[in-house]
Amino acid sequence: MSVLATVSSPLLTAPPNGAAVKPSLAGLSRERLRAAMLQAGVPDKQARMRVSQLWRWLYVSGVTSFDDMTDVSKDMRTQLSAQFTLDRPEIVSEQVSVDGTRKWLLRLPKRGHEMRAPEVETVYIPESDRGTLCISSQVGCTLNCSFCHTGTQRLVRNLEAAEIVGQILLARDRIGDWPGAPLPENAHLLPNTDRKITNIVLMGMGEPLYNFDNVKEAMAIASDGEGLSVSKRRITLSTSGVVPEIARWGGDTGTMLAISLHATRDALRDELVPINKQYPISELLAACRTYPGLSNAKRITFEYVMLKGVNDSPADAKALVRLLAGIPSKINLIPFNPWPGSQYECSDWETIERFAEIVNKAGYASPVRTPRGRDILAACGQLKSASEKVRASQRTAAPPLDA
Ligand code: SAH
Ligand code: SF4
Question: Domains of the chain: which residue ranges?
Answer without folding.
Answer: 27-83, 93-392
